[in-house]
Amino acid sequence: MVKEDQIIILAIRDLETRFGSHRIHSGLTLDVYKGELLVLFGGSGTGKSTLLRAIIGLDPVAGGSILLDDQELTRLNAAGWRDVRRKIGYSFQSGALFDSLTVAENLEYPLQEFTSLSRQQRREAATEMLERIALPGIEKLYPSELSGGMQKRVGMARALMLNPPIVLYDEPTAGLDPANSKMITALMQSLRSRGTTGILVTHDVPCALAVADRIAFLQAGKIAIVQNREEIKDNPDERITAYMNGDVA
Predict the structure, then answer these.
(1) Alpha carbon distance 104, 56 (integer Å)
(2) What is the residue-wise DSSP string for the chain?
(3) Residue 176: its pLDDT value, please?
(4) What's the alpha-carbon Rg for the chain, to the nearest Å?
(5) What confidence score (pLDDT) does residue 104 get?
(6) What pLDDT does 1 receive?
(7) Which residues of the chain have pLDDT under 70?
């Protein structure tokens, strides 16, 4: 539950993004509070994943402002983005593992890039993370040897290797069986309980309701409504209700 005195860790103001001549976001404004898990709902093509990619600097911004702890992200150079990406973990929808690297090497990659840990320390950290996501003993396997659910869990694990204060989750349960969906949902709940800030893009309504402090609905390039858990329970906005009922594609 977000309280009025909570700290805004991410402030998005009048954001505009484009894909070629097509405008995706126009005047999008949103606050994300420290320690909350904010869920993004919206129909297909409304730019939910594009918003995550803009926050992490993977998609260009045509206008507006993105402030992380009062640091303007839209004006960063390559060195600035490198520093920011130590603070924001990104869990890709596909897992986005490196096919030529083993599971352990995939998990060690951010540690090798951003820390001075020894090879042994990196390997120990990877092993600990695999135990944390209930996939022990798969260090030497390659992504092609993993199921889709396992790839997603390893991809999420890689996003957590630097213990980032913010994690962006892009459809982490899409296409998964109930057991894997439950495990990923539990992992997000655990991170939330530890104070990790999260933004979750998902069509998985049970997962969203299990983890969300607030739900924001994206429509026509803007955030149309934001409601907290109590509001959604007692007086949900009709757009959020329609989405949860499957009436919004």
Answers:
(1) 24
(2) ---TT--EEEEEEEEEEEETTEEEEEEEEEEEETT-EEEEEE-TTS-HHHHHHHHTTSS---EEEEEETTEESTT--HHHHHHHTTTEEEE-TT----TTS-HHHHHHHHHHHH----HHHHHHHHHHHHHHTT-TT-TT--GGGS-HHHHHHHHHHHHHTT--SEEEEESTTTT--HHHHHHHHHHHHHHHHTT-EEEEE-S-HHHHHHH-SEEEEEETTEEEEEEEHHHHHHS--HHHHHHHTT---
(3) 87
(4) 18
(5) 97
(6) 46
(7) 1-5, 248-249
Q: Clarify whether residues 57 and 151 are in a common domain.
A: no
Tell me how far apart the alpha carbons of residues 180 and 62 are, in angstroms, rounded to a whole number: 37
**Assigned token pair, 8:** 């805004």
Tokens of 204: 């998985």
- What is the model's pTM? 0.92
Cβ neighbour number for residue 127 with a 10 Å cutoff? 15
What domain range is 13 assigned to?
Answer: 1-87+166-180+197-249
Distance CA 61, CA 50 (A): 10
Counting the structural domains of the chain, the total is 2
- Asked if the structure places residue 188 within a domain, the reply is no
Length of the chain: 249
Dist. CA 90–CA 88, nearest whole Å:
7
Cα four-point dihedral sign 114, 197, 155, 226: negative
